[in-house]
Amino acid sequence: MKSKPKSRQNNIVIQELNNEILVYDLQKNRAFCLNQASALIWQACDGEKTISEIGQSVSQKLDSKVN
Fold it and tell me: What is residue 14's predicted lDDT score, i.e. its pLDDT?
């Protein structure tokens, strides 16, 4: 069975800024600022794509190899 990660959508606040995403965790009262690559990976974690598919998708969007 291949892993198909899904980003958490509950108890968080999401703010998109240019090429970054700010994620605020309401349970832990912590904020996380995702750079462009991390933001693309987080957005691609929809529970449908495998890790390999996510890597390929992000590599295409960044025009750079992502491992």
Answer: 95
Q: Is-above-0.90 flag for pTM? A: no
Q: 8: how many CB neighbours lie within 10 A of its CB?
A: 11
Handedness of CA 25, 30, 31, 37 (dihedral sign): negative
DSSP E strands, 1-67: 12-17, 20-25, 30-34
Residues 6+ apart with CB under 8 A from 61: 40
Residue with tokens 């929809």: 46
Quick one: tokens of 15? 């703010």
Condensed to tens digits (0 to 9), the pLDDT of residues 34-57 reads 999 999 999 999 999 999 999 999
> Angle between the 36-44 and 51-62 helix axes, to the nearest 10 degrees?
140
